[in-house]
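User: quick one, sequence for these tokens?
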């Protein structure tokens, strides 16, 4: 792993170079087929892959050249000697090889109903499209109406599909950007907007008579209320104390008028190996769960390299979601666990999976990922609205939307019952790895139609008395002037962390007093605005010697935690937001290699 002193910018740049080339040049060729003659004619092809790196090496061994990435179909363009076409088709990691001209016309205009990973395909495959045609006890279509879903992430931008002031609420901005009025609440990173679209996006004018049109973008719970709690900045930087403060805020304000927060989405995780019964982040989500909030967490994106789920997915109470790979087909019979999805271990692995590879969500123009990862753009998208990403982050967001549908249908469900319904009604996954896929793949239609189960989880209760530093794992923010990292038992405000005092308040749901958390004022005490003009939590200025007018930056952070294999065809994958951590060293390490 690269040194933690490597800059976020440098890490991102290295990642971009890797992506642009698909595979590093000069990789030694093992057991290579006979080299192509220089007289061989080069033919332009589209290489669809199961493993992009292996496919690129196969092209290199065959004497060909890798070209542009085609994330829409998990493919890349290439030129290959025509005598090597058969060998390339049979090479490991290669799904198919098609002459470029055969697909050029099809790719000129993107169609949601022709893309197995579009949101239209996702809501159809998971059964949400059928659920929307059902009604609750009041006769309302089941789209999540009346259910609040809290999204702790990098904020939500008001792009088309999320520009509904009646449903999208800005909770407190606890990020380092909260002190800049022009950045407050806005998603400068791009991850939160992508997650929000999958959860609750809905195009203007769309209703339950038109949601089944592939020309409209519709998330899993299109009539739910989304409460955005921003904790991360433009480079993805945040400290675990900010995330914990966000979770505690959600618990304290879950029953506020107009919020009714019943679901909490965390498409994020740290690489902490601290015992989940001690870890503060784990304790925070468990406290939320026991206060009646269904907590959905991404399992992680470390593939087989990490033998534990990310934190707080490691907590056994919450719903840990792995990423399924559709293999680019509408049928679920060939779906497998995505190669990047964290497997965990026999004691704690994902509870279920949901679509998580190359998912088409809403683009956040000008955000960090939009600017730095243009391969996430969807070829043929004439609207310029969409962006493709992969990871257990996306899988968790889709599952959070499904939970909201259940909670509209049966408002009195406990989190344990929601988990039992979702986990107990999945579609079996018979191909690929067993460890990491849980009970199978999300099918919310079957969950809606299943009887209400009796379910009470009885895991050993967490104490939350572990250390804040261990909860961070390897993710640290740093002072941009001195380079000093925030470490130890201190939050971003410079306040000492006393585990026993905090854990007791978190368990009781009283960690926030007005706008104060852990002894310092972080935010205001109420919402301003209306459902017509838009509602946002009142902000306040931060003060304290630890700040000195500056802000922390993501020097060792660099965004690895918010999802990140590539934001392109191969992935957006979660080592960043979802899986390993919010820490920047990951964007520069194995995720990108």
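Assistant:
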């Amino acid at each position: 792993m690269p040194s933690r002193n490597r800059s976020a910018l440098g890490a991102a740049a290295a990642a971009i170079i890797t992506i642009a080339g698909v595979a590093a040049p000069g990789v030694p060729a093992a057991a290579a087929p006979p080299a192509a003659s220089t007289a061989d004619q080069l033919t332009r092809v589209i290489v669809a892959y199961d493993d992009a790196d292996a496919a690129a090496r196969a092209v290199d061994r065959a004497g060909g050249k890798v070209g542009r990435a085609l994330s829409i179909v998990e493919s890349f363009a290439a030129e290959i000697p025509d005598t090597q076409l058969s060998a390339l088709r049979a090479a490991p990691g290669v799904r198919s090889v098609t002459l470029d001209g055969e697909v050029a016309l099809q790719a000129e205009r993107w169609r949601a109903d022709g893309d197995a990973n579009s949101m239209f395909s996702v809501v159809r495959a998971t059964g949400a499209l059928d659920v929307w045609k059902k009604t609750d006890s009041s006769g309302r279509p089941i789209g999540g109406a009346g259910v609040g879903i809290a999204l702790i992430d990098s904020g939500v931008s008001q792009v088309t599909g999320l520009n509904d002031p009646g449903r999208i609420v800005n909770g407190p901005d606890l990020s380092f950007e909260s002190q800049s009025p022009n950045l407050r609440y806005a998603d400068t990173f791009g991850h939160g907007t992508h997650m929000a679209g999958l959860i609750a996006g809905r195009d203007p004018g769309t209703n339950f008579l038109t949601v089944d049109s592939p020309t409209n973008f519709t998330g899993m719970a299109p009539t739910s209320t989304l409460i955005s709690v921003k904790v991360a900045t433009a480079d993805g930087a945040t400290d675990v104390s900010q995330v914990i403060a966000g979770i505690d805020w959600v618990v304290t304000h879950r029953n506020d008028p107009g919020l009714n927060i019943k679901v909490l989405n965390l498409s994020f995780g740290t690489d902490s190996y601290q015992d989940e019964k001690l870890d503060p982040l784990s304790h925070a989500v468990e406290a939320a769960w026991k206060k009646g909030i269904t907590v959905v967490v991404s399992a992680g994106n470390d593939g087989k390299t990490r033998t534990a789920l990310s934190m707080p997915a490691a907590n056994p109470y919450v719903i840990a979601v792995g990423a399924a790979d559709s293999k680019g087909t509408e049928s679920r019979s060939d779906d497998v666990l995505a190669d990047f999805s964290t497997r965990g271990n026999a004691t704690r692995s994902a509870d279920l999976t949901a679509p998580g590879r190359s998912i088409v969500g809403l683009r956040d123009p000008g955000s960090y990922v939009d600017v730095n990862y243009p391969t996430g753009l969807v070829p043929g998208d004439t609207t310029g609205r969409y962006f493709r990403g992969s990871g257990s982050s996306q899988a968790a967001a889709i599952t959070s939307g499904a939970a909201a549908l259940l909670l509209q249908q049966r408002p009195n469900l406990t989190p344990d019952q929601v988990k039992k319904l979702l986990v107990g009604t999945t579609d079996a996954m018979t191909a690929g790895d067993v460890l990491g896929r849980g009970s199978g793949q999300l099918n919310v239609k079957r969950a809606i139609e299943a009887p209400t189960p009796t379910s009470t989880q009885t895991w050993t209760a967490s104490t939350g008395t572990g250390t804040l530093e261990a909860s961070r794992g390897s993710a640290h923010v740093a002072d941009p002037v001195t380079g000093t990292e925030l470490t130890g038992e201190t939050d971003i405000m410079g306040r000492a962390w006393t585990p026993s005092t905090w854990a007791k308040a978190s368990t009781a749901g009283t960690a926030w007093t007005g706008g104060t958390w852990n002894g310092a004022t972080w935010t205001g005490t109420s919402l301003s605005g209306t459902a017509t003009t838009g509602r946002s939590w009142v902000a306040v200025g931060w003060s304290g010697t630890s700040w000195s007018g500056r802000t922390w930056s993501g020097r060792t952070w660099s965004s690895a935690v918010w999802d990140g294999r590539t934001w392109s065809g191969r992935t957006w994958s979660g080592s960043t937001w979802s899986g390993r951590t919010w820490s920047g060293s990951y964007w520069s390490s194995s995720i990108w290699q």
